[in-house]
Amino acid sequence: xxxxxxxxxxxxxxxxxxxxxxxxxxxxxxxxxxxxxxxxxxxxxxxxxxxxxxxxxxxxxxxxxxxxxxxxxxxxxxxxxxxxxxxxxxxxxxxxxxxxxxxxxxxxxxxxxxxxxxxxxxxxxxxxxxxxxxxxxxxxxxxxxxxxxxxxxxxxxxxxxxxxxxxxxxxxxxxxxxxxxxxxxxxxxxxxxxxxxxxxxxxxxxxxxxxxxxxxxxxxxxxxxxxxxxxxxxxxxxxxxxxxxxxxxxxxxxxxxxx
Length: 259
What we know:
- The protein is an alpha/beta fold.
- Helix content is 40%, strand content 24%.
- The strands form 2 sheets. A 6-stranded mixed sheet has the order 6-7-8-3-9-10, with helices on both faces. The chain has a 4-stranded antiparallel sheet with strand order 2-1-4-5, with helices on one face.
- α2 packs across α3.
- The N and C termini lie far apart (56 Å).
- 37% of the residues are buried.
């Protein structure tokens, strides 16, 4: 069964199209990178998968179930841009709480949370209250909560923002291990070089997937050396197509008026 099937989804905010008829499937064992600049609609796409964003058209199915579906949330590990943590609890208590929600046994949770917090370099701070955490520490704790889960689908929205390069390397190594255990992983980022670490890349621009495929396929398609260059070329091509369509419409309108 395909873990995630997105079919023809559109999302509008005040009649402004944010996501425009997007379709894609996510497979187990793959890390898929949703790449695009800030404001491109990456977080909106994640929220649509979670059932937190109303769709104007289309549908999302996760493990064969149409979203929104509260029961499916147990099968998803998630890190959002806004850290949904309990500030009155310690870091460890947050890990334990969210692990219990995911149905992880106490014995297994102890092992998994220890591994996840080591990956994000937070082990020494677990007994501190969240009120003593910096924004970056909260970000790392949210990522540890997602990494400790047994969920077969992991959605990570900008998880490496503000994280130093060495730690980011360790996080990607852990993501690769989790994908090897047959999890489907979707990670959003505006850092183009992270796309090179993904099995598949979705280039999101102005609400459209301007390109989809492996990093090698996308670079070959546009004859460039980096994903960033491919993104720029794809955007230019999209702009040209859009301008051409507008000019054609204007010409047709002019002909109608002249008649």
